[in-house]
Amino acid sequence: MRPDESFVGQPIRSLQQMLRVIGENDDRLPSVVPDGIYGNDTVRAVSAFQRRVGLPVTGIADQETWEAIVARYEPALIEQGEAEPLRIILDPGQVIRRGEENPNLYIVQAILLVLSKLYAGITPPGMSGVLDLATADSISSFQQMNLIPVTGELDKRTWKHLALHYPLAANAIFQLD
Question: Global pTM?
């Protein structure tokens, strides 16, 4: 089965790349190498995709098939990529002090909870959104462990260290479970 001349070149490689990404999220789709050649592996991958989404199974990436592939490619690409980073915005010089309420404290408290499972010196805080005594104690312990000024308050320096420790700690805890 030979494709039309319009498939020669980068469109084939693009098609193969999209099918590869979609296939990484779906075991029922065969893997295809983006080599730019519309060979048997590509025909097989297109056919499997068509079967999977209820299109006529021809092995040819017609307009309807192409649009269906494109529609499933972006969500599949998001699933494969890294999670979008979350950046807490503290104003220049902003410090969240004991007794203050701030929505970012929920995130900090969740991070401290995870860190407390890995580091015995950190006690788990409550989840209040308030920099209460328990949260201040957890922050102080974390600050001491990281050799940063021990204030029990949330500043940009403390946030940076929390953000750097969290991914490793969360991964380590996941590995232990």
Answer: 0.60
For the stretch 100-114, pLDDT in tens is 999 999 999 999 999
In whole angstroms, give the CA distance from residue 15 to residue 176.
40
- Write b or e for each residue in 15-47: b if 16 or more Cβ atoms lie within 10 A of its Cβ, otherwise e: bbbbbbbbbeeeeebbebebebebeebbbbbbb
- Which domains does the chain possess? 5-80 (1.10.101), 104-176 (no CATH)
Most distant CA pair in the chain, distance? 72
Between CA 157 and CA 177 the distance in angstroms is 30
Helices (H), the chain: 10-24, 40-53, 63-80, 104-118, 133-145, 156-176
Q: In DSSP terms, which residues pair with 130 in a beta bridge? A: 101
* 45 contacts 23 by C-beta, under 8 angstroms: yes
Q: Tokens 């929505």 label which residue?
A: 103
